[in-house]
Design a protein that fits this description.
Layout (H helix, E strand, L loop, with lengths): L1 H25 L8 E6 L3 H14 L4 E6 L2 H10 L8 E6 L1 H7 L26 E13 H7 L18 E3 L6 H13 L6 H14 L8 H8 L5 E5 H12 L3 E4 L7 E8 L6 H12 L1 H8 L4 E2 L24 H22 L1
Parallel strand pairs: 1-2, 1-3, 5-6
Antiparallel strand pairs: 3-8, 4-6, 4-7, 4-8, 4-9
Helix pairs in contact: 4-12, 7-12
Length: about 350
């Protein structure tokens, strides 16, 4: 009889455990549902960190994502304006995008907007700032050593031995490449100076036709040893350092001056999943979302959130050139056209 009772107790416990496990697998059944379609320029680690956190918070919302360069995704949003396919553009947006295509985005301010420093708040009504991007050069140490070159800044990219061994993304397709182009102009003499444009023409010659259609091509090409130097941006490069490859590659902040640019996200005009899109904007601006960025290789836009990743160099230790956002917003296309003319002239 005692054995029978014991057996019944064990069976009951097993049954309860299986029930609890099944309940856990299907829970929670409450909370927001539906789906959210994301267009994003973010590299894998950043996407997984932030979108993964959102999925944990809202497990019943199904995420559909399309990745691409900023130029490509903005073109899609314009083309799909009559029947939007995306709900949000996650990353890849800067102030000039508000000027050039603000009509394609919804007016919305995240719930935590006022917690940001004034300079980082959503002052356009449409762009929710998420991160700060610093531009840099990325160097393959072994390849640079073979050539006997030391890279400290933009001027070093004109060294003849580097011809065809430097890779940049297309500034017309990549937001980080556009930021590099505008930073070079600012750091090498000024947006309209002959000195700066003479430098760019010499650089185009030394690139020798090498250009990636996406920002990832620049840092991946350097890491894989295909190129000596990449003209790129900080966060994915730092990921290599963080993952233990600091003996193979290094980040160089140009001695002439780098730049720190705020990157934003926005809700697509007439998004089909508007409530979920607003939840996502609230998430990336929340202390929790910004705190996730602070643990990574990406700098959070809310500078009140302390950075906890030791691989990030304090911005106080990086020389930053002046950036005139209003000028760049008004003249971006003219600058790009002039760059394209130089490229066509020498390639």
């Amino acid at each position: 009889m005692k054995k029978l009772v014991a057996l019944l107790v064990i069976c009951s416990l097993i049954g309860f455990a299986l029930y609890a496990q099944g309940a856990k697998a299907t829970a929670p059944t409450d909370g927001p549902g539906g789906k959210l379609v994301i267009y994003t320029t973010n590299f894998d680690e950043e996407y997984n960190l932030i979108v993964g956190g959102f999925e944990e918070k809202y497990p019943n919302i199904k995420i559909e994502a399309i990745t691409g360069g900023a130029g490509e995704l903005k073109t899609r949003i314009k083309a799909e304006a009559q029947s939007p396919q995306a709900d949000v553009m996650f990353g890849g947006l800067i102030y000039s995008d508000f000027v050039s295509m603000g009509d394609f985005f919804e007016t919305y301010k995240a719930a935590n907007n006022d917690a940001f420093p004034a300079a980082m708040q959503n002052t356009t009504g449409k762009l929710t700032n998420g991160t700060i991007q610093v531009v840099n050069l990325f160097v393959n140490k072994a390849e640079a050593k073979k050539l006997g070159v030391t890279i400290t800044g933009y001027k070093d990219l004109l060294n003849p031995v580097l011809k065809g061994k430097i890779i940049s993304a297309d500034p017309g397709a990549s937001s980080s490449a556009w930021n590099q182009l505008s930073t070079m102009l600012s750091s090498m003499g000024g947006y309209e100076s002959k000195e700066a444009w003479d430098y760019l023409e010499a650089l185009v010659k030394n690139l020798n036709g090498v250009m990636s259609s996406s920002s990832s091509g620049a840092y991946k090409g350097v890491f894989n040893g295909e190129y000596v130097v990449g003209i790129t941006y900080e966060s994915p490069c730092l990921t290599y350092i963080q993952d233990g490859y600091g003996d193979q590659v290094e980040i160089v902040y140009p001695v002439e001056g780098s730049n720190a640019i705020t990157f934003a996200s926005a809700i697509v005009k007439n998004a089909k999943n508007m409530d979920n899109a607003k939840l996502f904007m609230d998430w990336i601006a929340s202390d929790e979302g910004q705190g996730l960025w602070a643990t990574s290789t990406v700098r959070p836009a809310n500078t009140n959130i302390p950075i906890t990743n030791a691989v990030l160099t304090p911005t106080s230790q990086i020389k930053l050139s002046t950036r005139d956002n209003d000028y760049l917003a008004k003249n971006q296309q003219a600058i790009l056209n002039r760059w394209k003319d130089l490229w066509a002239k020498h390639n």
